[in-house]
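Might you be able to consider the sequence and fold that I enclose below?
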Amino acid sequence: MPTENIFLHTDRSYYSLPDTIWLKAYLLSGLTHTFSTISGLIYVELISDRNNVVKRISMPAEIGLSWSQLALDKNLPDGYYTLRAYTNWMQNAGTDKFFTKRIYISNPATNKWLVNQHSHLSTEGKKSFETIDVTLKDYNGKEYGTDDVTWTFKAGDLTLDKTTVKTNADGSFTAKLSLPDTSKVKGPFNLIINGKLPSQNAVIPVLGDIDGVDLQFMPEGGYLIAGLPTKIGFKAIGTNGLAKDIEGYIIDNKRKNIVSFKSAHKGMGVFNLTPEKGETYTAIVANKTFALPLVSTSGINLQVVNTLGSDSVKISINSSIDLLNNQPLLLAGFVNDVPYYETSIIASGQKKTVSLSKDLFPSGIVHFTVFNSLGQPISERATFVDHSDRLIISAMPSKTAYHTRDSVFLAISMKSKIGDPISAGSLSVAVTDDGLVKQDSLENNIVSSMLLTSGLKGTIEDPAYYFSDAPSATTDIDLLLLTQGWVSYNWPEILQPGAQTKFTPEKGLILSGAVTTMADKPVVGGHVLVMISGKKVSIMMDTVTDANGRFAFKKLPKTDSLSFYIQARNEKNKKARLQVKVDQFTPAGGIKKALPGMPWYVNTKDNTAVKLAEDKLEFLKKQFLFEGNNLLDEVNIGNKKGIRGSRNLNGPGGADEVIDQSRIEAAGEITLLDFLLKNVRGMNMLDNKEGRSYRIRDKTVQFEVDGWLSDRFLIDDGGGPSSRYDQLTTALNGIKMKDILGIEVLTSSKYTNAYALMNSLDLSDKNSRDGAYIEITTRGGKGLSSNVSSDATDYKPVPITWPKQFYRPRYTASSVITDLRPTIHWEPQLATSKAGKTGTSFYAADKPGIYTVIIQGADLRGLVGFKRLKLSIIK
C-alpha cells in the first residue's frame, strides 16, 4: 500500500495570544519522499494536553504542497499543545505515522507572574507528601511582597486541597501537598495559585516521585536467549517524560554483580550480556530494582554492526543449539515498507553472518527481519543508513549586517550532493527575532522528520541532533534505534498486498455520496440538488446519480466555511422515500496524553519569553499595521458587535439587531423561545385562519440556526403551518440560553435579501420572501436537531483554511510606530529556477539584535534539505 508522510514547517514553536501559526505542509510519498499525488486535503489539529481538539482545519494540497495559517483563539489557556497533521489516507497506517509537534501557547493577559519553585518529597507513616517552596515575582523581577494568595491542589477538575496563605516579604510561601493514591485518583495533578487580580495566577504541575525513573531494557533482536551473547539497550525516562541519565549494575538471582552500565545519551545506553539458562537478572539503579526480560531457552537473535565510515553493514543470525535443524530462514531488509534485500539462510550453524553494501538501501531506517519457514517474523533490528544525499541549501544575505528597518534580501540556492543545481524545488522561509523567540536548533526539521522520526514511535528528544556534526551522533542514532519503538510493519499487507483499505484518498474539497431507497438499493439516474452557503456564497448545483447511485460535486466555491443542504429526487425528479448518504470525513482518534510540561514562567532562565510577554500588549495595539494576520476581539459594523462563529450571510454583525453575550448572560436560565419573545423587538405569535406562526410585527419569522434554515430540521407531516409552529416551539423550548453564543435579527431588505435569494432555492420553503430572519449561533454548532427528512441531509465539512498573505511592512519616513514582531518574515513558497536559485526580501524591525533564518525544502526527486543561519541587526 502506498503511504504518505507529512512535515509541517511552522514559523516558530512559541506563541503569545492572540497569535497566528503560519504553516507550510510538505506531503511526500512514504516510499520515495517525492511529492505525493495521493491526497489533496491535509487536516491540521491543535490538541490540548488534556487530549481535547481545540481547533481543526483542512488545507488544500496541490502536488504535495500546501500553506495556510491557524488563528489561535484569544481565550486559550496557557500551556503546551500538540499540532497534528495527517490525511484521510494516512489513517490506514495508524496515528503513529501522523506528524506531531509540541508548541507552547502563552496568554500574557491572564498571567503576569514569574514563579520560582523547588519541590521535595517526604513520607509520614503510609502517607506521601510533596512540599513545594514558591516565590512570586512580576516580569521585571519585583517581588510580590506580603499579600494573600490562594493555592489549590487539583487532580484534573477534582479539588484535593485548597488553602489561602499570606506570602512572606519576598513573595514566598510553602504548600505541603498530600499525594493521593494514583490507582484511585487520576491526574494530571496541578498546584494552582491565584492572587487578588485576575492576571495573578500560575499553574505548577505536580509530578509526585520527582526522582522516579521508568527504565526499560531492549535486547538486540528482541529476546534474551540462553547461551547467546546479546547486546542490551536501555532507556531511562524521568517522571517529567524526558530522558534521564542514570548509572547502575546488573545482578543475577544469586545477587552476584554481573556488569555495570551507564547512559551515554538522553538516558540511553548499552551493555553486553550472555544470559544463562535458569537465571533471572535485575538492574540496580539508585537503590531501586528493575527486572530485565526473562531468559528464553530457545530462539534466534539478529545482530547488526553498522560502523561509522564503513561502506557495509554486518548482520549476524545467532541460533540456540536446539534450532540447528537446517530449517530455511529468510533475511530481509526493508526501507519504508519496501523490500530492498532478501536472502535465504539455512540454520546449520549457531552463527551466520552476511555483509551487505549500504548502497543497497536508500538513506533512512533499514528494518532487518528474520522470517521462519512459515513466513513469521521471529527477530527484528533497525539501523540507519546515511548517504548524506540531502539537498544543499545556501542563503547569502546582501550585507554582513543590517540596520533596523533596513530592507533585507536573501539570495537562496539549492544544489545536490555533487553540486548540480536543483530546479523546481519548493522552499519555505521563517525569520524570527532571537530577542523574542528562542528557536531550538535541535528540534525536528524536514530532514530528521522524513528520514528518522516518521518511522519511529513516541517522543524523540532533539531529533536534529542525530544529523548534526556532533562526534557521537552516529553512535547515538544506533542507540536510538536499538531502544526506541519503531512503527510496526503490517506483514500480511507487505507480503501479500491487495488488502482493502478503510480510508480512501481525498483529492480535494468534493461533495460526494449516494442516494438509495429505504431498502438500501441504489437509485440510478436520481436527481440531486445541493444548496451551498458560506461567507459571501449562496449558490445551487444539481446532478444525477450514476449506475451505482452515487453523485459528486467537484467544482465547489473556494471559501473557508461551506455548508451543504442536499436533497434527492427519483429518476423522474419526483419526491420519493429515499435516503441521502454523504461521504463524511471521520477524524482520527485522540493522542496519548502528554505528561504535563512546566509552563514557561516557572523557573525560567530564558528571558526571551519574558520579553515577548512584556512587548505583547504594545504589539497588539500596533500589529494590525504590520501583520494584519490576527482577528480583532470584535468585528464592528456600524457599532454592532459580531458574533463569534456566526453563519450570517451578510457577515458577522450584518443585522438590524445584534444580541451578544452580555445580554444573553443577563437573561439567566430561560429557554431560547422565552428569550426571543421577551427581547426581540416586535416579536409575537400570530394565530389566524392560515395557522399559527411567529412574527416580527407583520413579517413571518424564518429561523436560521448555525447557518441552517430551521425548516430543514422539521418533519413534513402534512399538518401545514400549525404543525411547523408546534415543531418550532418544541425545538426552541428545548434550547437553553447558556448554549447560545449570539443572536442576529434581520428585518430590513438590506439584510434579508441574501437569505431570500438563498432560501428561495429550497424546494420545501414557502416563506422565503418578504419575511424576517433570526440567525442563531449555538455553542455546539449543529442546528436545531438531527431530525432531517430522509430524502435530504445537511453536511458541514471541516473548514478549509485558504492561505492569507503574511503582511510585509513598507516603512516610510513618517512611520513612527514601534515594530515589535516576533516573526519578522514568513515566506511559505519559493520555487527554484533552472539554475537552482530563488530569493526573498523583508524589512528588519525596530530592535537591534540577532535574527534566526530557517529554510526548509524538498525537490521532485525525493530529496529534502534544511538550512539555518543568523542575521545581525544593528542600530
Notes: The mean pLDDT is 86. The chain has eight helices and 55 strands. The radius of gyration is 32 Å.
